[in-house]
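Structure in, sequence out. Go:
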């Protein structure tokens, strides 16, 4: 049976996959959809979960996203994730594009981002989980590193 994670509350569950779709919603918090995982995944306590569509536009901000980014969900929805957070990656790579294009996950990718209301960049890691259903999309798990400020 496939393993799923809820972007809203971070709850993991095992459920049947329906042809072409993920199970419908989280039994705990009522979030509208779940993301299928290849292995179990435990987001850290400081991790923010953000859901993007195939165009990298934020469609939902879930568990920990406000604390991790400083943005309220209403400020995030409709924004392109890289532009919103001023994400930058080592060596000019774009792991988000790779995950969306190739349908592969990426774990513990070093990055820098700018939280809302701050002028300095902060170090973080992101984990990327492409949606394995017909809608596409991406679950982004952003984990700020404690005390890691870039100037």
């Amino acid at each position: 049976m496939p393993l799923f994670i809820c972007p809203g509350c971070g709850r993991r569950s095992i459920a049947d996959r329906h042809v072409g779709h993920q199970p419908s919603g989280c039994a705990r918090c009522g979030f509208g959809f779940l993301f299928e995982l290849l292995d179990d995944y435990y987001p850290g306590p400081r991790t923010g979960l953000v859901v993007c569509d195939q165009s990298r536009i934020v469609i939902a901000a879930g568990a920990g996203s406000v604390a991790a980014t400083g943005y309220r969900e209403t400020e995030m929805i409709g924004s392109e994730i890289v532009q919103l957070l001023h994400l930058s990656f080592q060596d000019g790579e774009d792991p988000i594009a790779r995950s969306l294009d190739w349908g592969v996950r990426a774990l513990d990718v070093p990055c820098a981002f700018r939280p809302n209301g701050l002028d300095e960049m902060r170090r973080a890691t992101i984990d990327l989980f492409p949606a394995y259903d017909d809608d596409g999309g991406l679950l982004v798990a952003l984990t700020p590193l404690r005390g890691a400020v870039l100037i």
